[in-house]
Amino acid sequence: MSFAGQRTGDDSTARFVRAAVNLRDLDISRSCWGCQITDQGLIRISTAECVKNLTSISLWGLAGITDNGVIQLVSRAHSLQHLNIGGTFITDESLYAVAKNCINLKSIIVWSCRHVTEAGLVALVGGCRKLESINVGGMRVPPESFAGLLAISPALQIRSITQVLNASVQVS
C-alpha cells in the first residue's frame, strides 16, 4: 500500500492501515504533494494487526517523525526485511530499536539522517545479522567509519553518495 504523493494525515492513514489485514508493504513517504504523517500517526499505525507481517516500510522524507514514532512502529514489525527511513530526523535510538526488533532486516536506507552516528550504525549492523545492504549517503559519519561496519559484516554492501558519484564519473 502506497500513500506516497497522497495528501493524507495521521488519522486517515492509520485507518487505512488498520483495515488492511494482509498488508506486507507500506510506503508513506513524503513527496512534493505531502503525506503529512507525524509520530502520532506512526504510533496509531503500530497498533494495526498487519504490522507484525510487514516486510517493507518506507518513511522517506517524513520531517514530522522522530525516534518516538519509529521506535513504536519497528518494535512490532518483526518480519521487516526492507526499511527506508532516509531523510528523516531520527537518531541512533531508532537504529537501536531496529537492531533489537528487526532481526530479518536485509536492507536499510538511512540516507541523509544527519543525527545518526557511527555507534548507531555499528549497533544496527551487529544486531541485524541478515543485513545485506545499507545506504548511508549524506550523513555526518566519516567515510572511514564504514570500515568498522565491514569488520562486523564483511559481505555488507555499503552505498553512499560518494560511491554513486564515483561510479558515474568512471562511466563518463
Using the coordinates shown, work out and report the CATH topology: Leucine-rich repeat, LRR (right-handed beta-alpha superhelix)
Number of strands: 6
Quaternary form: single chain
The portion of residues forming beta strands comes to 5-15%
Low-confidence blocks of residues: 164-172
Architecture (CATH level 2) name:
Alpha-Beta Horseshoe
Write out the CATH superfamily name: Ribonuclease Inhibitor
In angstroms, what is the radius of gyration? 16 Å
Number of domains: 1
How many distinct helices?
Answer: 7
Structural class: alpha/beta
The major beta sheet can be summarized as:
6 strands, parallel
Amino-to-carboxy terminus distance: 38 Å
As laid out across the biggest beta sheet, the strand order is 1-2-3-4-5-6
Which range best describes the helical content: under 10%, 10-25%, 25-40%, 40-55%, 55-70% or over 70%? Answer: 25-40%
Q: What form results from the Cα inertia axes?
A: globular
Give the mean pLDDT.
88
What pattern of helices and strands is seen along the backbone?
A: HEHEHEHEHEHEH
State the name of the first-level CATH class. Alpha Beta
